[in-house]
Design a protein that fits this description.
Distance between the termini: 22 Å
Radius of gyration: 15 Å
Length: about 80
């Protein structure tokens, strides 16, 4: 299996402490754009990105099951130690 990646260095990571002493992390930046050719030569229609974003939020984010690895992993498997 081949993993297609694209690197965007213009990302801001914001960490905020909450009242309970825990931390909340926010990542701000452009992660994907519709109707524009990316560096992989692909262009995704807005309707496709909206549908898949809504599905991801509903199935993963709202159920607290969304996680990822910073700095683009080398393959499709996420290293749980770097989540």
């Amino acid at each position: 299996m081949k993993l297609i990646t694209e690197i965007n260095e213009q990302v801001n990571i914001i960490t905020e402490a909450n009242e309970a002493g825990g931390r909340s992390f926010y990542i701000e930046g452009i992660f994907m754009q519709a109707e524009q050719k990316n560096r992989n030569g692909r262009m995704y229609p807005l309707s496709v990105l909206q549908k898949e974003t809504e599905r991801y939020v509903t199935e993963s984010v709202m159920k607290n099951r969304a996680y990822g690895e910073l700095w683009h992993p080398d393959g499709p498997t996420i290293n749980i130690e770097r989540v």
